[in-house]
Design brief:
Blueprint: E1 9-12, H1 18-29, E2 33-38, H2 42-54, E3 58-63, H3 69-83, E4 88-91, H4 106-132, E5 145-150, H5 163-183, E6 188-195, H6 204-207, H7 210-217, H8 228-238, E7 250-253
Parallel strand pairs: 1-2, 1-4, 2-3, 4-5, 5-6, 6-7
The chain binds NADP nicotinamide-adenine-dinucleotide phosphate.
NADP nicotinamide-adenine-dinucleotide phosphate binds at residues 13-14, 16-20, 37-41, 44, 65-67, 92-95, 115, 119, 150, 152, 195, 197-198, 200-203.
């Protein structure tokens, strides 16, 4: 199928809930072709599709485990066939599997690394390959392709009891920066968003509990928990020609969580 002029084709991994769903909807509202990747939540993906279409976008649901190479290759083949190319990858899929370090099994370590780091590597590599085949695409004189990694404030804030998760996000920081350096001459931009606390399924046991929510707000100078839209608005900006001179950068969208709020009254 031929794509419409100036319509972005955007692949959002992990778009069946939370931040990925919010990002997919935001691109849908701008008339984009949105590929909604999911792993297990088929109903969630269908809900995202409905909302993308309601906003005026065109949606396509693709199931794939981002940590499995053959599934990622198949997903990218289907995307580029359906939409005749790709403009933006939002590398969002991620999980937590928490444990005290001494009790952490190899399986817990590998599960998190597979989805959060290997998955982001595999999808980024396939996006770079797709961008390389479509020179001349994109707004005149601007990037021919964009990758946005969804990382976490835990790419720089250590997190006890979550060593596998924090290690995977620290890995994304250097994956993003090294890749940005390598592909900038090809006019491909690579950036990251590091969210603070955003109310989604991944952390619902915290923001649904009154006491835990109060403790969490102590860590957020701006005194509110974030919403998927807070991340989605920045993702749309990073994927647009308005941010064409930004590459290799992480935007922390965290209500000030990385400002070391413990130093407000101490130190
Ligand atoms: P979420 O609501 O639990 O969503 C996670 C998404 O990832 C789901 O769509 C899930 O799909 C997908 N996923 C999980 N494993 C997958 C796999 N192997 N292959 C493909 N998709 C997979 O969590 P979220 O908060 O929106 O998290 C999204 C990203 O933001 C993650 O990278 C997370 O680390 C990051 N983040 C979140 C916060 C926060 O406070 N919420 C803060 C910092 C960073 P299914 O449900 O279909 O299995």
């Amino acid at each position: 199928m031929a794509i419409k002029e100036n319509v972005q084709t955007v692949l959002v991994t992990g778009a069946s809930s939370g931040i990925g769903q919010g990002i997919a909807i935001a691109f849908g509202m701008r008339g984009a072709n949105v590929v909604i990747n999911y792993y297990s939540d088929e109903k969630g993906a269908a809900d995202t599709l409905k909302k993308v279409e309601a906003g005026g976008g065109k949606g396509l649901i693709l199931k794939a485990d981002v940590g499995e190479e053959d599934e990622v290759l198949r997903m990218f083949k289907e995307v580029t066939e359906e939409f005749d190319g790709l403009d933006v990858l939002i590398n969002n899929a991620g999980i937590q599997d928490d444990s005290a370090f001494a009790d952490m099994s190899l399986e817990q370590w590998e599960n998190v690394m597979s989805t959060n780091l290997t998955g982001q590597f595999l999808c980024a590599r396939e996006a770079i390959r797709a961008f390389g085949k479509q020179k001349g695409r994109g707004a005149k004189g601007k990037a021919i392709g964009n990758i946005v990694f969804i990382s976490s404030v835990h790419d720089i804030i250590p997190w006890a009891g979550h060593v596998n998760y924090a290690s995977s996000k620290g890995g994304i920081l250097m994956l993003m920066k090294s890749l940005a350096l390598e592909v900038a001459p090809q006019k491909i931009r690579v950036n990251a968003i590091s969210p603070g606390a955003i109310a989604t399924d991944i952390n619902d046991e915290v923001w649904k509990d009154k006491k835990k929510k109060k403790d969490l707000l102590e860590l957020i100078p701006y005194k509110r928990i974030g919403l998927p839209e807070d991340i989605a608005n920045v993702a749309v900006f990073l994927a647009s020609p308005d941010s064409d001179y930004i590459t290799g950068t992480t935007i922390y969208v965290d209500g000030g969580m990385t400002l070391y709020p413990g130093f407000v009254e101490n130190g």
